[in-house]
Amino acid sequence: MITLDADKVSVTEINRALREAVKAGEEVEILNPRARHHLGVGILGELNMTIRGSAGYFCGCLNEGVKLRVEGNVGWFAADNMMSGEFIVEGNAGSCAAPGMRGGVLVVKGHMGSRSGQVMKGGTIIVGGNCGFMTGFMMINGTIVVIGDAGDLVGHYMVGGTIYVGGKVESLGVDAREVDYTVEDDIYLSDLLACYGLPKPPAFRKFVSGQKHHRYGKKVYEGE
Amino acid sequence: MCGIGGVLYKNATGKVGADLKRLIYGIRHRGEDSSGVAIFSAKEKIGKYDVLLINVRVENDKAAEDVLAIVEDLLKKVGGEILEARTKGTIMSIRAFYEGSEPDLCYELDKCKVQTISIGNQLRIYKDLGTSDQLDEIYNYSSVEGTHGIGHARLATESVVSPDRAHPFWAYGFSDVAIVHNGQLTNYWKLRRKFERWGYQFRTDNDSELIAIYIAHYLKTDMKLQDILVQSLEDLDGTYTFLVSTPTEIGFAKDKLAAKPLVYVDMEDRVVLASEEISLQALLPDMENVTVEEPPPYSTGTWSITGEHNFTKLTYRAVRLE
Predict the structure, then answer these.
(1) Which residues of A touch B321 (CB under 8 A)?
(2) Which residues of B146-160 are buried (b: 16+ CB within 10 A; e: fewer)?
(3) Model-level pTM?
(4) What ipTM does this complex have?
């Protein structure tokens, strides 16, 4: 286990050390993050890392294959352009989480801010608490699961993908359509949430794109 | 991009200056062009008079003498007097007796080419080029105690970099109203022309100054700050998160898309607001047991120095976004 103290080394040096740790196959923990920005960014390869505290903006962005756990909150734009891997936030996440996400899983055990999963093209976002407005704004593919309540304009102008909400929905966005929540959906979500030790509400509401405003050729966006 | 912050002590006086210095230093990465703080302290009375605090800009020592003579002369004409004048850096802080109209005094000072930074019985604004710690070396504002205050780190977008376009903006002519703003107003000129027709004068070409005058105008009509903020979400167009401070309250407004951030912690002794958590952590290193909140878009809130908190969230149907 490599321990990096953010009070003693710069964020650039931390990210460099993380890339070295991928090569060495070592696990990493980061102490005293104090909501610093750009922690754990641009790491390509398998790595297990833990941030012991809150991270700031752009945490865990542009990553491929990293298993990242944050023991506090994360700021805006967490998991920006995440390609694959697993990103677990024990606290809350700020706005604009996982924009342009391509794959992997982002789990926020607390609440999440607005515009999460904007133009996401794949992967899964799970929120243990509530989420802000415009969840899945213009999302193209992938899955967003909100166990708590969702704010205004859920799935605003969504093109593809699926949004599940366990609690109350403030309002639906333009071109988001509610469809039946099936037994298959329930089995899928039971398994998914059990993986992260999250409670599953008895039923979810399921939203997909109405395909009225934006749509892409099915061939291109069916599956990964 | 700019950074904003605020601190308010509940039913107490605290180290507002020192708090703001650390808070704004914590978000200096959001803009290092200029920075500033507005600190509200309790009213100072001598006899039955409230002492008026005036901060004006002076370019050098020679100019300071001239400015002092102008202010002294103006005050004498209306039966006022200067109690004390001190110059640090390019700001002269004056304590004075003055019973007349504050807008008139400001407009008179303006005619004499004296640039007023703040006027009020409780408000002191210090703003200049550089980061909050560089400012403190010159103005030593961190020693000022108070009940509440707001601060700003600027990355100029809407007007050039200069000391008078640094934030906080004081509502020109009104005592004790200050704002800090992160964002852009797209209907600035339209609203400015409206306020100019109503007789208000603007000191700069910076869009944020409008917010200060907007708030001060409606405060004058006895509207509550919270109601003014709610109304401002309809009237002000653009992307913005701003903080406003009056003698008794700090309020915030976030536009309907909320592209500009704001987080806060509401603790037993005080409320601390900032653009980013990194800034809160710079002030409060031991944050294990406090919850950091992010207000939703299209919302406003106020905290008063007596500890009351108001919050309003508007719905999107009202703006026909759907």
Answers:
(1) 153
(2) bbbbbbbbbeeebee
(3) 0.92
(4) 0.88
